[in-house]
Amino acid sequence: MVYNVSLFQENVRLSTCDLSWNGFGEQGGLALADALAANTTLKHVNISWNRLTYPVAAKLAKSLLVNESLETLKVRKSALRQQGSIECMSHSLLSLA
After folding, report:
1. Which one of 14, 28, 45, 49 has the fewest CB atoms closer than 10 angstroms to its CB?
2. Rounded CA gap, 22 and 70, in Å?
3. With contact defined as beta carbons under 8 Å apart, do 79 and 51 qualify?
């Protein structure tokens, strides 16, 4: 499966995006993390109910450290909790405080 996330890198008007229930898994999650690192306009993203993994959480955490526009990232029921990924993201974000 090919993931074209250049939309998030190039779009200057999109502020909210709901990607819940897409089942994009690890490959898509890693591509999304790259896109979020480069995006400067998205404020709210919902990636709930996708098969995200610990490597995705780690990369998302790094992306969140450089993304200055994102206010809300919903990850409900994304398999992150079972793998300790929420803790991974939390530790990265706490370093901002």
Report:
1. 14
2. 20
3. yes
| Cα distance between residue 5 and residue 11, in whole Å | 10
User: Under DSSP, is residue 73 helix (H, G, I), strand (E, B) or coil?
Assistant: strand
Q: Is 45 helix (H, G, I), strand (E, B) or coil?
A: strand
The two structure tokens encoding residue 96: 């901002």
Mind listing the pLDDT tens digit for each residue in 22-78? Answer: 888 888 889 999 989 988 899 999 999 888 888 888 888 889 889 999 998 888 877
How would you classify residue 16: left for phi > 0, otherwise alpha for psi between -120 and 50, otherwise beta?
beta
End-to-end CA gap in the chain: 38
CB 64 within 8 Å of CB 37:
no
> Can you point out the beta strands (E) in 11-93?
16-18, 44-46, 72-74
